[in-house]
Amino acid sequence: MDVHSDPLKPWIMASHADGNVSIWDYQTEAKVSEFRVSDVEGTDTWHNTHWICSAKFIAPKDWIVAGGGDGYIYVVSYKMRELNMTTQQVKKFKAHGGIRFFMGEKDRGKWVESLAVHPTQPYVLSASMDNLIKLWNHDSNWDCIWSFSGHDSFVKHVMFSPDGNHFASASDDCTVKIWNIRKPKAIATLACGQDAQQHVAYFSRGDSQYVITGSLRGSARVWNLQTNKKTKILPGTTPENKDLEGLDYEVHGCNIGVINLDQDNTNPVLITVSKDMSISFLDQTSYAPRFEELNDLSRGPPQDFAYIESTRSLVIACPRGIAIVDMSEQMDDDMSDNTNDDTNEDTDVRPKRRRLEPKWMADYVMIKD
């Protein structure tokens, strides 16, 4: 999932298992466009076309870049004519390959699992089930600048650091690795026990940089990148030493995220998802809850999170819909501090946390990323 960086293009983009990409207007809640990216025959149990596993805006180019289950990266241009969006494929190229079997499905090694767009440079990262990460230059005919090796299993997620000089990768090999974009070998490996890693996100605390990592089994960890040491297992997620065998304990989709409530990035909120699919919003220093939990996501587990700065809203993608949540921190009148002259010392007079109300914007099936 992605949110367009231009407030004049109030768009949310989601990718689908049927080879489609859809774009939605978060102001009008209307679908702007849905179009087919890949018609390649799929390898999954449902005989879908290859999943579009990740799709991102490249805003300066008016492009969409999408990664498919066939190992190809697709580049699509878009234009708005009055109220209609037109799209055209600009380029399609083989990014990842290899033949592997996963749960009886051949060629899963080709899947482009994750894409990341550099904040300032013409670079795009791709991560795949072939265990590789690649860096592409879209201003140079999509030349591959580097191929990064070091993971021993599927690479599920990649993300650039805020300054763009580094990136992090999460893998099924139970590690998260930190890389310099100009060096082909990892500069740090964060060992996450026996937990296959699904997502990673950066945040800052003062002058120090951290990442939060999320696993298939539910554990979320905070790491200090100055020391590469784990500093916290976040509350609300599965304890690290608990027996987690069986699907009942697995958290599928995205179970961590970071949103910055202020534009200077000094007010991050850490998002975690527990095994019962309730979502917690934690302070980045004290890890205390900043908002009440969300625990009524009836349309499936969260697949991804995004933040709309212009409206201070969180976007939650689920398999059967998109929810938008107002994250402004003003208290409602009935949620304010109840302190009065008659309050005794034993009364809990702490301000109540704001209750979040998800607003469901769209209905459809199977968002991948």
UniProtKB/TrEMBL annotation:
Coiled coil: none annotated. Residues 330-346 have a biased composition (Acidic residues). GO terms for cellular component: COPI vesicle coat. Keywords: Cytoplasmic vesicle, Repeat, WD repeat. WD repeats lie at residues 112-137, 148-189. One of its GO terms (biological process) is endoplasmic reticulum to Golgi vesicle-mediated transport. This is Uncharacterized protein. The gene is LOC123178203.
